[in-house]
Write the structure tokens for this entry.
Amino acid sequence: MNSIVSQLLKLQQLDLTIRKTGHDLQQIPKQSKLIDEKIKDVKAPWEEALAEMSAIESAGGVEAGLMEMEEKERSLRRKMPEIRTNEEYSALLKEIDATKKEREAVEGRSLKAMERLEELRKSLPKLEAAYKSGEEKVAAERAGLKKEQQRLEALLLEAKKERQALQSSLHPGWFRKYNTIAAQRNGLAVAAVKGGICQGCFMSLRPKLIQDLLYGEEVVFCEGCQRILYLEENQPGS
Ligand SMILES: [Zn+2]
């Protein structure tokens, strides 16, 4: 094979590897999400319980509010001996009653919150165990995916390095030509010839072009698709 063509073919193989590896790497987050999906049913209840507990705990201000209300009630009661008229007396009783009702409502809510917190605390170890066992079940899958990602990243890096090296050893004119054809032909600038037929556009080559390919002295272009041609080895007629 003509040496320029063999370099351009190598360049094309690297470009295809880079393109495919890049695409494969883009699939990794999607696969990771699929794994997340598998343990969603055991992870969500655990996370929700934790979130609810922390919401109740951070609303601990209820206790402080209660003490203020108790204090207000006491100070209202202390005013009683100073009352002179019936109107003042019934107004004060009303105020005391309202304060008491408010306090009882807060106490009720606070009690409910404490009960709920206790319930959550009790259920947490079971929820956590279920989540952890779910994670254990997908651990091998997660590790496999991570390994695959590392393999692809290494492959991509290697292919890019090789491409860089190849580019600097190629004449810039040939590199430009390759890029121009590749851009016009969906990334395939170099095509094999099998049984006298270009595998890029499936046109038969004139015998003269086959001869030129066999001599391998010059770069031969397909007259149908303008791709750079090479004779595929181990094919009859090559
Ligand atoms: Zn062709």
